[in-house]
Design goal:
7-stranded mixed β-sheet, 2 domains, Phosphoribosyl-aminoimidazole Synthetase, Chain A, domain 2, 241 residues, 9 helices, alpha+beta, globular, 3-stranded mixed β-sheet
Length: 241
């Protein structure tokens, strides 16, 4: 269901563009838009509610990670946050140079198919998406499961590395704390990882769950760093987007 608030005066073209986008998303995820509401608002508001059915035994919660589990993700990170910087800066050279970053910000892709495969496999012990940032998602799993997470790599996208170097930014900052990427962050029983990797080729091992509850640590070269509990936090003034 979709509710839309439109600031007056509204152009017919704007309504058509919104409708096309909603239609495209509905087709992509094989769902139907069954109704909603339209009203006037001070700012453009598009509110979407999705309802579905799931088998309780196939739900993968955040609190199932156990010491020794593999920590894995379904992609690389930092593209959406870098793309948003380009869109905000309106630098034409960056638009031409980094089209994949622009696309990541404008057309994020939820890993729905991969999530269903992992859920039905019963091999994933915990899961969350990374819409609030990779660091925040890792901390949510660690806190809910009462484990520590030790990262041996941070999956920064190659084009993000290039963009960050060119603009004197931190690629790790963009990858860890940017958000809006919708990749899956999962923990998997170690004996099941290779099998699930064949079924979900996007899976990438980035660390392990540990018995000691030290939060989230990462090994960067010879340096061991603590990953801060930062990301999108609702109803706070210091939320990062």
């Amino acid at each position: 269901m979709v509710s839309i608030g439109l600031p007056a005066p509204v152009k017919k073209r704007t309504v058509h563009e919104i409708a096309r986008g909603l239609g495209r998303a509905a087709r992509e995820y094989d769902c139907k838009i069954i109704g909603g509401d339209t009203n006037q608002a001070d700012d453009l508001v598009i509110d979407v509610i999705g309802v579905g059915l799931a088998k309780p035994k196939e739900l993968v919660r955040r609190d199932g990670a156990r010491p020794g589990d593999v920590v894995a993700v379904t992609g690389s990170f930092g593209k959406s946050s870098a793309g948003l910087r380009i869109l905000m800066s309106k630098q034409k050279t960056d638009f031409a140079k980094y089209p994949s970053l622009i696309r990541a910000a404008r057309l994020p892709e939820a890993r729905l198919t991969q999530g269903i495969i992992l859920a039905k496999s019963h091999g994933a012990s915990s899961s969350i998406d990374s819409s609030d940032g990779l660091a925040w998602s890792l901390h949510q799993i660690a806190q809910a499961s009462m484990v520590g997470i030790n990262l041996h790599t941070i999956p920064v996208a190659a084009e993000v590395e290039s963009f960050a170097k060119e603009h004197r930014l931190s690629a790790l900052e963009l990858a860890l704390y940017g958000g809006e990427e919708y990749e899956l962050v999962v923990t998997i029983r170690p004996e099941r990882f290779n099998e699930l990797k064949k079924r979900v080729p996007l899976l990438r091992k980035i660390g392990t769950a540990e018995k000691k509850r030290f939060g989230v640590l990462a090994q960067i070269g010879r340096k061991r760093i603590r990953v801060e509990t930062r990301g999108w936090q609702h109803f706070t003034n210091d939320s990062l987007r």
